[in-house]
Design brief:
The chain is α+β, with helices and mostly antiparallel strands. It has a single domain, classed as Alpha-Beta Complex (Inorganic Pyrophosphatase). It contains 2 helices and 10 strands. The chain is globular. The mean pLDDT is 86.
Amino acid sequence: MPRSLAEPIELEVVIEVPRGSFLKRGSTGQVDFISPLPCPFNYGSVPRYLGMEGDLLDAVVLGPRLPLGSQVRVRAWGAVILADRGMSDDKLICSTRPLEAAERIRVLRFFHFYAKCKGLLNLWRRRPGRNACDGWCDAEVALARARPRTGTWEGPPVGF
């Protein structure tokens, strides 16, 4: 796999789903669903950006488990392009260090599996549309498709 020549972008991520958690929460703190499998990564969002589907831009933070609601400053080394109900839903892939090729492959494998599971969940919820992992892109591409969030951000909701 070719390595990106672009410099990583440093940004703030709020953790919504700690690594190993079974609860999938959204940026509001509400539980979206309970997974039969633990999340293999810390999963959260970038409060300063909105993704193309209108929610906060998603981010995966590799490394050890981080507490729910923690705010971390990390570098985005790339992004996974996910289609959820036909809408593009980029996931920034972040870490404190450059990704190894094996990590990138593992992330892509997870999101291919995740897209299939999300497709089944959406079918059960009667939410039509295509669900798929469409591969990898540079973080700059995902951020260019996102919109800067207007207003101020004051941290995760109370009780998060």
